[in-house]
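Comment thread on ticket #2218

A.B. wrote:
> Attaching the input chain for the structure job we discussed in standup.
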Amino acid sequence: MLARIIFALLATVCFSTGAFAQYPARAIRLVVTILPGGAPDIAARVVGQKLAESFGQPVVVENRPGANGNTAAGEVARAPADGYTLILAADSLIAINPHLYARMPLDTLRDLTPVASLVANQFVLSVNPALPVRTFTEFIEYARKANPPLHYASGGNGSQHQLTMELLKARAGIDLTHVPYRGGVPATTATMSGEVAAMFAGTSTAPQIRAGRLRALATSGAKRSSAFPDLPTIAEYYPGFENSIWLGLFGPAGLPEEVLLKLRTEITRALQTAEVRERLHAAGGLEPFLTTPEEFAALIRRDHERFGKLIREIGIKAD
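C.D. wrote:
> Ran it. Output below, let me know if you need it in another format.
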């Protein structure tokens, strides 16, 4: 399938003409919605470096944290649609924030153009080692019988940590009490200390898991994680269960087709190189996530709809 994607993109680029045929003719600004050092920032710099090498123009990563990414996304949406201002956005910004915030500076489906999916990551259902469970099925049975319900940590109201656990609660018919923290790091610390019993942690917690400070039971992806190949997926017990984090590249609405085709072609090439794959995996188990433009658009619509439904059902509001 990858060869088909590349061939189609290359064929179209060869015949593209117009005002943007020489794109890029200057530096590209790539906005990241978190502080330097996190997995999205690393992904932006790894992919951005490869794009700069291919295009012969700098790709300047600009970190703009705050307002859960909404402010930065609004600024990118208002930028000229010329391909020189892009944003690396997580699924939470595109598909979750619109349902959490009463006032958004943009319509993420209307005001941004999906350029390409970049990377994906899974959650790991992890528990405090003192909890008397060693397998996923034991955890479900223990949680089902617990009275009062077990407490679980998340990185905040409306975070992917919370939504993934809420999906599991609904599917397994169990009850757990949500305890929101201000980010994944304090949530992980609370789970390790026993302040709460469980959480869906990112694969970046691999060192804590291997050191025995957390016990990993299962992963949330459609297939087993390369970071934890011995762990079962939840889908092996509940077919169809899947919730992975994805990161994608977006630009303002109305990006020219020539620009989209060039970006998509070079991103596809970059994500297939061993160097990029190794650097992404080292950044917390990130995996290249290649899709066609149609597949990426369908994924965005799916997540926007399903998270909106879940958020309305459980009445989540932003902190």
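A.B. wrote:
> Thanks. Noting for the ticket: The first strand starts at residue 28 and ends at 32.
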